[in-house]
Amino acid sequence: METKILPVDSVSLKLARDIITEGGAVAFPTETVYGLGANAFSEEAVKNIFSIKGRPNDNPLIVHVHSDYDISTLVSYVPDYAKKLAKKFLPGPLTLVYKSCNKVAKAVSCGLDTLAVRIPSHEGAQRFLRYVDMPIAAPSANISKHVSPVSAEHVYTDLNGRVGLILDGGRCTGGIESTVLDCTGEVPVILRSGLVTRGMIADAVGACEVYKMREGEAARSPGMKYKHYSPDCKTMLFEDATEAVDEYFRQTANGVKTYIMCDGATARGLRVENILNLGDGAEEIAAQLYEKLREGERVAQLIIAVSPKQRDGVMVGVMNRLEKACRGQ
Length: 329
Ligand code: TXA
Ligand code: MG
Description:
The protein is of the alpha/beta class. The protein has helices at residues 10-21, 43-53, 80-89, 106-109, 123-132, 152-159, 198-205, 241-253, 264-269, 282-299, 314-326, and strands at residues 4-7, 26-28, 35-39, 62-64, 75-77, 94-100, 114-118, 136-137, 165-168, 179-182, 189-192, 209-210, 234-238, 258-262, 275-277, 302-306.
């Protein structure tokens, strides 16, 4: 299959709609990461997404809709706090999980009785979703377990030959996936941290919990149990920059092409040649993280990451990705 990369315009949107209505998949930009979308009403089209990515079939997908789509046709109950959150943060990088009314294909939620819904704010995403005017089931447009894509080129690297069309909407400004928030209980519960933080949610509706999986319990957000976000090279994570530098010189002396990945302030204090600088401030670090992990896998055999000191707000989501990228290595 030939993979076209086209800017979002009337020609590419028509092609996208043709592919989607025929049961195919289209990659499209969002403000967080690129998505790989298919018709959420079609069992076959949704299963195709899992096979393109090599995704485990117990990891449910998010349904994406444009900002005027009537989500009451997809879910059975929307609590008041979710309405408030939607008003405040949507369209934007926040996914809300509701009780489903089983209108979309079963494969979307992998047998769960809930449905995750997202309204992305990216202009290209909105145009695509309006043009097809149907709910689009879409995971991130990477091969399963690899780093999520934040540019059309990243999608092409992973899915060349597996997808017919990549809508190119430029670099994603958010850089990490949306916050996933369970809205099926009395109080909202964060299942995956992101750019809309616990503090922002609690400020808006008075309370917000963070899900912690207990021993022996089935994962409430099955995606969280998998290894994720990993570059195709070795990675190590250090709390302490001095230890990271020691390791860098040890590895380099052994002939291992090594880069240190760290925030801007740490980078300015390092006397090493190979640095992947994530920049300063949580938002910038989030925006650069996947770009730098992918840059790193192209040039390095080993990435030594130094965890940023800050641990609150958006940094919670960043640290969660960084720890997973380095897990078990
Ligand atoms: O920013 C994003 O959310 C991106 C863009 C493309 O929109 N999408 C994304 O999709 O990150 P994906 O498939 O890579 O991650 C979806 C996450 C997984 O952790 C999955 O387990 C969780 O959402 N999820 C989906 N449906 C769920 C449900 N019904 N209940 C609990 N968690 C759910
Ligand atoms: Mg993903």
